[in-house]
Design goal:
mainly alpha
Length: about 30
């Protein structure tokens, strides 16, 4: 997925907060 830098930063923050729950979605982003 191509996102704006700000949106990506927010997404990463959400991954850090939620932890393993969004780890799978982080893999999709990569």
């Amino acid at each position: 997925m191509h996102m704006e830098p700000r949106a990506t930063r927010v997404f990463e923050i959400n991954v850090v907060r939620r932890g393993p729950v969004n780890d799978g979605m982080n893999g999709l982003k990569s």
